[in-house]
Amino acid sequence: MTGTLTIVGVGPGRPELITPAASAAIAHATDLIGYGPYLDRVTTLRAGQTRHASDNRVELDRARHALALACAGKQVAVVSGGDPGVFAMAAAVFEAVEAGPSAWRDLDIRVEPGVTAMLAAAAEVGAPLGGDFCAISLSDNLKSWTTIRRRLEAAAAADFVIALYNPLSKARPHQLGDAFALLRQIKPPSTVVVMVRAAGSGDVRQIITTLGDVDPDNADMRTLVLIGSTATRLIAREGKAPFVYTLRREVEGGA
Amino acid sequence: MTGTLTIVGVGPGRPELITPAASAAIAHATDLIGYGPYLDRVTTLRAGQTRHASDNRVELDRARHALALACAGKQVAVVSGGDPGVFAMAAAVFEAVEAGPSAWRDLDIRVEPGVTAMLAAAAEVGAPLGGDFCAISLSDNLKSWTTIRRRLEAAAAADFVIALYNPLSKARPHQLGDAFALLRQIKPPSTVVVMVRAAGSGDVRQIITTLGDVDPDNADMRTLVLIGSTATRLIAREGKAPFVYTLRREVEGGA
């Protein structure tokens, strides 16, 4: 039997946000590979399925393992949170393919897209991504802080809405604060900032504040941070959190 | 009965990419509002449901209609392609709320996220969004071409992967070509360019080329254009389209 490999996005958390295509890919697989908590969330093993859980830090090893299984004829699903193409497993798989044996290039490798964290976070508060936007991972495991700074500066100067993934971790507790400090040099203190923890899960927590007031200590690894453009606005509501949205049209005098 | 309004993302086309949460919101609604083709794609009316089709150019009118129905006690679903928060209906609804009667602010308004076109397009070819990226709409209906140019320049100079929505239309046939010309002044001609038409539908068509060779006439309104960073690579394959992906790590000598 010819092996296949599908990198499957299971969305931000709630089972209701897993697409039927992703569920079908998981049900069809003989071998499931992924970070333990993701596998727990999405899989009930059926007869004939094997689970290969791993920790979260060995993406390339996990990718090679998946490719080797597919090459041996298995129907492999690599299970990834959010969308597999956005700061998740898909790029690691293709990196392994390029560096690996030529047989890996001939495999049937597919990506099943999913709802990435930034979309789920935006949906929780309104429509803050309503204009042009960019997504930046603050992790400097794989790129320099100089590059991250350069991208933050460019995004702020060109007035993009900015979505920050991987805002901080135990190993790099100061990066989100450093990013806010940099952005304050370019953007007004009244700029809307939204922090959404565990967006699209059953346990979401949101903070709506400003660049002048934001406290980076309120974020953790499961937080998605959105920084508005000059066109991002709040709609105040009686006794409820405000709606946050970005005007589709330009604002006169915007940066 | 208290009215509600849900802005529902139905993804890029294939029914298998509509989340169960989006399907449930549509099934629960008493009134469905949207662009005719989207409604046709996702809805089979049940008893008690009313459909309000509209053309695609009157987003604010459609938003106001939806809000008025919800205020009158209906369970309203505004159906939007892709993700409603990304160049789609959600921002128009909140714009209407801010400008409308105060009762609209008190409504229960929710957004159901979906798979936006850029994620579906990326998944068709590999993992081109594997690094930091930005999304820009080339439509100048609501913002100036000067602003679009400034954002393209900033994104290119900071070496983001760039996703272009609304690349051209009959009313503005030259914008995609102008954008490529601008990017050629900043990025090398070998930069990977991917054009995916009708990504995530049953009728997808993809072109993988370079910034030096790309022909804007191969795009239309249903095309999503991805322009690589210096870390975006092709993996050649025997007798098949190459895989396209962006290395997660920086490339030495990258822009």
From TrEMBL, chains A, B:
Residues in Tetrapyrrole methylase domain copies: 4-214
Pfam family of the protein (one): TP_methylase
Entry keyword annotation includes Transferase: yes
Molecular functions per Gene Ontology: precorrin-3B C17-methyltransferase activity
GO biological process terms on file: methylation
EC number: 2.1.1.131
Record key words, sorted: Cobalamin biosynthesis, Methyltransferase, S-adenosyl-L-methionine, Transferase
Pathway(s): Cofactor biosynthesis; adenosylcobalamin biosynthesis
InterPro entries documented for this protein: 4pyrrol_Mease, 4pyrrol_Methylase_sf, 4pyrrole_Mease_sub1, 4pyrrole_Mease_sub2, Cbl_synth_CobJ/CibH_dom, Precorrin_MeTrfase
Enzyme class at the top of the EC tree: transferase
Protein name (record): Precorrin-3B C(17)-methyltransferase
Gene from which the chain derives: cobJ
